[in-house]
C-alpha cells in the first residue's frame, strides 16, 4: 500500500514514527511524471532501506523566466499508481503553497560548480535546486537519498552541498536509464515532436563517439568541436553547451581521472541533457 501525504507536518509525523521503530529511510526526490529512470531509483532504495518515500513536487524555484514550468507534465494519479506498483511506501506531494508559504528571503548560492554546464545558461537554476533539496532533506530526514546521473551536474552539486554543510544523509548515484534507442529517459521527452523524437537518440550516439575518440587519444578540444558540430547536424536542435570536465568537481579535466562529457540541446518545446562518463564501458 502506498500512502500519499500532502503536508509537511504529516510527513514529519510518519517519518519520526519510522525512525522510532528503528527503520532506515530511503528517499527518492522527483518532479513526477514517473518513468523507468525514477523507478530505478526506487528499486535501489528498496534494496538498501526499510522504508521508501518519494516526493513529487514541480519546484518553481528552479525554473527561470521563459522556461517550461507550465509545460512540465503533471499527473499525480498516474504517478501514484506506478509508485504503488513498485511498492513505494509513501509519497510526499505538497503544493507550492505548502512548500513556500512565505517569500523566501535567504538564498543558497552554489558557487563556481554551478556556473558551468547547465548553470551557464540557467544562472538561478541550482540556487532553486538547493533551496528545495535542503527543505526536503529537513522534512524527510532520510538515511539515503537517490539521484540519477542523467542530471550529473545536479548530483555533483548536491554531493558537494551535503559534504560541505555536514548534512546527515548518504547520497546514492544511480546510472542513467535509457530507451531502447539510447535516448535518456526523461519526463520532458513527451514534449518532443515526432521528428524530434526520431533525432534525439543521436545525442547519446554522438557522446559515445566523443568518448571513444578521447580513448583513442584525440585532443580534448578536437573532441569537443566534433560533438558540437555533430549535434547541430544530426539533431536539428540548438546546442546550449558541450562540456568535458573532471567529475565530480566539474573543474578542468585531468587525463587518467574520471571525466564527464555532457551536453544540452534545445528542441522546439523542451531542452534535453545527457552525458557519458569517461572510463565506463564503451
TrEMBL record:
Pathway: Cofactor biosynthesis; (R)-pantothenate biosynthesis; (R)-pantothenate from (R)-pantoate and beta-alanine: step 1/1. ATP binds at residues 31-38, 148-151, 177, 185-188. It comes from the Bacteria. Keywords: ATP-binding, Cytoplasm, Ligase, Nucleotide-binding, Pantothenate biosynthesis. Beta-alanine binds at residue 62. Catalyzes the condensation of pantoate with beta-alanine in an ATP-dependent reaction via a pantoyl-adenylate intermediate. This is Pantothenate synthetase. It comes from Savagea serpentis. The lineage of its organism: Bacteria, Bacillati, Bacillota, Bacilli, Bacillales.
Amino acid at each position: 500500500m502506498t500512502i500519499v501525504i500532502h503536508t509537511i507536518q504529516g510527513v514529519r509525523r510518519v517519518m519520526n514514527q519510522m525512525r522510532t521503530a528503528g527503520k532506515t529511510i530511503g528517499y527518492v526526490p522527483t518532479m513526477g511524471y514517473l518513468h523507468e529512470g525514477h523507478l530505478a531509483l526506487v528499486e535501489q532504495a528498496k534494496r538498501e532501506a526499510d522504508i521508501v518515500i518519494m516526493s513529487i513536487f514541480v519546484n518553481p524555484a528552479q525554473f527561470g523566466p521563459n522556461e517550461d514550468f507550465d509545460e512540465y507534465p503533471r499527473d499525480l494519479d498516474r504517478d501514484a499508481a506506478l509508485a504503488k506498483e513498485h511498492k513505494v511506501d509513501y509519497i510526499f506531494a505538497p503544493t507550492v503553497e505548502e512548500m513556500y508559504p512565505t517569500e523566501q528571503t535567504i538564498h543558497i548560492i552554489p558557487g563556481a560548480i554551478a556556473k558551468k554546464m547547465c548553470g551557464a545558461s540557467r544562472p538561478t537554476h541550482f540556487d532553486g535546486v538547493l533551496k528545495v533539496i535542503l527543505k526536503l532533506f529537513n522534512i524527510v530526514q532520510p538515511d539515503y537519498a537517490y539521484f540519477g546521473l542523467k542530471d550529473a551536474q545536479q548530483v555533483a552539486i548536491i554531493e558537494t552541498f551535503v559534504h560541505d554543510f555536514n548534512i546527515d544523509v548518504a547520497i546514492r548515484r544511480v546510472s542513467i536509464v535509457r530507451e531502447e534507442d539510447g535516448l535518456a529517459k526523461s519526463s520532458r521527452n513527451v514534449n518532443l515532436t515526432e521528428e524530434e523524437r526520431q533525432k534525439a537518440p543521436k545525442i547519446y550516439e554522438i557522446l559515445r563517439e566523443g568518448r571513444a575518440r578521447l580513448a583513442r587519444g584525440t585532443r580534448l578540444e578536437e573532441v569537443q568541436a566534433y560533438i558540437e558540430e555533430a549535434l547541430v547536424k544530426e539533431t536539428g536542435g540548438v546546442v546550449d553547451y558541450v562540456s568535458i570536465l573532471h567529475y565530480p568537481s566539474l573543474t578542468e579535466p585531468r587525463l587518467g581521472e574520471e571525466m564527464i562529457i555532457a551536453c544540452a540541446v534545445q528542441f522546439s518545446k523542451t531542452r534535453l541533457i545527457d552525458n557519458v562518463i569517461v572510463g565506463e564501458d564503451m
